Amino acid sequence: MKLSELPDKKFKLKHIAIAGLACIVLLGASTVMIEATNTTSFCSTTCHEMEPMAKSYDHSIHAKAGVGCADCHEKPGLQGTIASKWQGTQELFLHVTGQVPDPIKMTDAHKKVNCYICHQDKIMNSEVAAKHKDPHTAKHFENGMNCLTCHTGVVHDDKVNMDVPGRERCYTCHLDNMGKL
């Protein structure tokens, strides 16, 4: 029996081919959309709510180094991309319905910033760090601190962009010991 004699199978193959082509087109369109929404220009110009953050970003060392929004605010890998796009969809709903809080505040910021990807050299040996009075030690990270514990506002606060955290920040935890240094 020939394929032409079986119209049902030919019909099914045609539908499978159309479905396969549709999947390829959908995958291609999704890839283009993901790439487009990962650009800093998309983040800074699409939503007027992001304007203050975009302006401060433009003055930051991160902007000068070519570090984009997604580099910091999207976890690496497929799982991070999916989570980021899901969050973006929720934010789009808030934007369209006019429910975006003013000003925008990042909740759980310490969970949504990937400083370690570029700054992993900052988790130093405690003895070497102590000799140079460098606070970037594993001990701080082991005690639940993270980069934003001391560097809150980096990139999105023009004043913080220009300053390295001073001893005042250290005093919040080390009031008794800071005078001895």
From TrEMBL:
Annotated residues for binding of heme 1: C43, C47, M50, E91
Compartment(s): Cell membrane
Family annotation (Pfam families): Cytochrom_NNT
Keywords, comma-separated and alphabetical: Cell membrane, Electron transport, Heme, Iron, Membrane, Metal-binding, Transmembrane, Transmembrane helix, Transport
First-listed, main subcellular location of the protein, grouped into a coarse class: membrane
GO MF entries: electron transfer activity; heme binding; metal ion binding
Membrane topology: Single-pass membrane protein
One of the protein's GO biological processes: denitrification pathway
Binding site for heme 4: C147, C150, H151
The protein, known as: Cytochrome c-type protein
Organism: Selenomonas ruminantium
Taxonomic classification: Bacteria, Bacillati, Bacillota, Negativicutes, Selenomonadales
